[in-house]
Specification:
- The chain is of the alpha/beta class.
- The protein has helices at 10-28, 44-49, 57-66, 70-79, 88-98, 103-108, 128-140, 158-179, 185-207, 218-224, 226-230, 235-253, 277-286, 310-319, 327-340, 364-372, 391-406; strands at 35-38, 53-55, 118-122, 144-147, 264-269, 289-294, 345-351, 376-381.
- The chain folds into 2 domains: 3-183, 3-Layer(aba) Sandwich (Rossmann fold); 187-406, Rossmann fold (3-Layer(aba) Sandwich).
- It is 51% helix and 10% strand.
- α7 links the parallel β3 and β4.
- The two termini are 26 Å apart.
- It binds iron/sulfur cluster.
- Iron/sulfur cluster binds at residues 87, 89, 125-126, 128-129, 271, 354, 356-357, 383.
Length: 408
C-alpha cells in the first residue's frame, strides 16, 4: 500500500489500541478493579457485565509474532516441556512470561501484562487455550472457568446450543460468588447489544472488499480487527468501525484501490503469518493481487447475538464459528465466500502448530477446486514460529501461482 492509498483510520486505531492497553495497565495497579483473561472467542460480554477489565492473551502473543520476537520465546516454553509442535501462540506467550518480557513494552511502553484475577476460556477454537490458561491459573493462583464446546459440528442443533448455554449460565453463577456481585441482566443485554453492533459493522467493513477493485486487503483486516477482538461489547469498537466503514465506502466511490491496478483476487484460508504480514502484503501488491477476504478476519462476526436472549444467543454465536465446524459445513461456507468476493484463487495457510485452523490435511482444497474450478495454493508456514517458514520457497510458489492465474 502506498502513502496515497493507505487507510487513514489506522492512526485512530493506534490511539485506541494504546488506550486499551494503558487502561488495562492502570486497572492492574488499582485494587478496586478486577482483570479477567479471556480466550479470543470466549464469553467476553459476560465478563464485561461483571465489570471486569478484559485482557486477551491471543492478542498479546500475536504482537510477539508480528514483531518477530516469538522465536526468542518458543524455546523457553519448550524447555518447560511444551512441544514445539503445539500452538506457537501458547509457547511464545508462556516463554515471554517466563523470561519476564512482554510485547507490550515495545508496542505501548507497558512493562508487564496485567495480572489476572480470573481466567476464562472456551474450547470452541481448540484445546490449546485450555492448557495455556491452566498454566497461568497455577502460576497466579487464581480461579479458572471454562466452556467445553462441541466440535466438528455439521448443522448446529438445539442440543449443541443448550449444552453451551447451560455452561455459560453456570459461569455467571460462579462469577456472582467470586465477585460478590449479583448478575444484572440489563448489563449483559447492553454488552451484547454493543457486541452485535460491533459485529455488524465489522461485517460491513469486510464486505466492502466485495467491490472491484477492493478498498482493503486481508492484511489490512488483520490490523483493523483489533477492536472486534479486544473491544467488542464497548462503544469504542462500534464508533471505530462506523468511521472505518465510511472511509472505505468513500474509497469505493473515488475508485481508490488497496492494490493499485488490481488484476487478481484471492481468498486467504487459515491463520495469518504474523511476522510476514508486511512482506506478503508487498509481494501480493507487486503482483497486482488483492487478498480480498479470509476465514480468519470473519471469525469475529457474531450475527446471532440477541440481547433479548442473552445466554442462548451467546451460546449460539460462540458455537457456530467456522473453526468449530465439519468439513462439509466449512466447504459450503467457503464456496459462498468465493462467490461473494469474486475470487480467482484460493490460498490455504497450513499452519504447522495450528492444525485446528488449517484445512489442508483432509483434501478440502482439491475438493473445492474440483467443484468450483478455482485453483488453490498451499503455503506451509506458521502463525508465530518463523523457523518453519521458507521465505524464498513461499515467494517462488506465490509468483508461480499468480502466473498460473494469469494464464487462465
Ligand atoms: S486456534 Fe490455533 S492459534 Fe488459536 S489458540 Fe488454538 S491452536 Fe493456537
Amino acid at each position: 500500500m502506498t502513502p496515497e492509498n493507505e487507510i487513514k483510520s489506522a492512526h485512530e486505531l493506534r490511539k485506541i489500541a494504546t488506550e486499551y492497553y494503558q487502561n488495562l495497565d492502570k486497572a492492574s495497579k488499582d485494587p478496586r478493579k478486577n482483570i479477567a483473561w479471556c480466550s479470543s472467542v470466549g464469553p467476553a460480554e459476560l465478563l464485561l457485565a461483571f465489570d471486569y477489565n478484559v485482557y486477551y492473551p491471543e492478542n498479546h502473543t500475536a504482537i510477539l509474532g508480528a514483531s518477530r520476537s516469538a522465536n526468542k520465546y518458543i524455546p523457553v516454553a519448550v524447555a518447560q516441556g511444551y512441544s514445539p509442535e503445539i500452538c506457537s501462540y501458547l509457547t511464545s506467550d508462556i516463554g515471554a512470561y517466563i523470561k519476564k518480557e512482554t510485547g507490550l513494552k515495545r508496542a505501548y511502553g507497558i512493562e508487564k501484562v496485567p495480572k489476572p484475577d480470573i481466567l476464562i476460556y472456551n474450547t470452541n477454537q481448540c484445546r490449546d487455550v485450555q492448557d495455556w490458561f491452566k498454566y497461568y491459573a497455577k502460576e497466579f493462583q487464581v480461579p479458572i472457568l471454562g466452556i467445553n464446546s462441541p466440535t466438528f459440528i455439521d448443522e448446529l442443533s438445539n442440543t449443541h446450543v443448550k449444552t453451551v448455554e447451560e455452561q455459560i449460565k453456570k459461569i455467571s453463577e460462579t462469577l456472582e460468588k467470586i465477585t460478590d456481585q449479583s448478575f444484572e441482566r440489563k448489563k449483559l443485554e447492553l454488552r451484547l447489544q454493543l457486541s452485535l453492533e460491533c459485529s455488524n459493522k465489522w461485517n460491513s467493513v469486510l464486505e466492502t472488499a466485495s467491490s472491484i477493485p477492493s478498498p482493503l486487503t486481508f492484511f489490512d483486516g488483520c490490523i483493523h480487527m483489533l477492536p472486534a477482538v479486544v473491544l467488542r461489547g464497548t462503544e469504542i469498537a462500534v464508533e471505530y468501525y462506523d468511521k472505518l466503514e465510511q472511509e472505505l465506502k468513500l474509497r469505493i466511490e473515488n475508485g481508490i484501490a488497496a492494490v493499485v491496478e488490481e488484476s487478481f483476487r484471492c481468498f486467504w484460508e487459515g491463520m495469518p503469518i504474523w511476522g510476514k504480514l508486511r512482506a506478503l502484503s508487498n509481494q501480493f501488491s507487486e503482483l497486482k493481487t488483492c487478498i480480498v477476504a479470509s476465514t480468519y478476519c470473519n471469525s469475529w462476526i457474531f450475527s446471532d447475538f440477541n440481547p433479548q436472549e442473552p445466554f442462548r444467543s451467546m451460546a449460539k454465536a460462540y458455537t457456530e464459528l467456522f473453526i468449530n465446524r465439519s468439513e462439509s459445513s466449512k466447504e459450503k461456507y467457503l464456496k459462498k465466500m468465493m462467490d461473494k468476493f469474486s475470487v480467482d484463487g484460493m490460498i490455504y495457510h497450513n499452519a504447522r502448530t495450528c492444525p485446528n485452523n488449517s484445512n489442508t490435511n483432509y483434501g478440502m482444497p482439491k475438493r473445492l477446486q474440483n467443484q468450483t474450478g478455482i485453483p488453490s495454493l498451499q503455503i506451509d508456514a506458521d502463525l508465530n514460529d518463523l523457523n518453519v517458514y521458507s521465505e524464498e520457497q513461499t515467494k517462488t510458489n506465490i509468483e508461480a501461482f499468480i502466473e498460473q492465474l494469469a494464464g487462465i
